[in-house]
Amino acid sequence: MRILVTGAGGFVGAAVVDAALTAGHEAIAAIRPGGNRQRLAGRTAKVVELDLGNRAQLDEVMGSSQPDVVVHAAWSGVSNAARNNRSQIFDNVVVTAAVADAATANGIRKFIGIGSQGEYGQMSGRIAETAVPAPNSLYGAAKLAAQVLSSQLCVDAGTQFAWLRLFSTYGPGDNGHWLIPSLIGQMLEGQRPRMTEGRQLWDYLFIDDVAAAILAVAERSDASGVFNLGSGQPLAVSQIAQMIRDLAAPNLELLFGEIPYRPDQIWHMEADIDRLTRLTGFVPQVSLAAGLSRTVAWHRSVRTRHRP
Question: Under CATH, which architecture does the 2-169+204-229 domain have?
Answer without folding.
Answer: 3-Layer(aba) Sandwich (3.40)
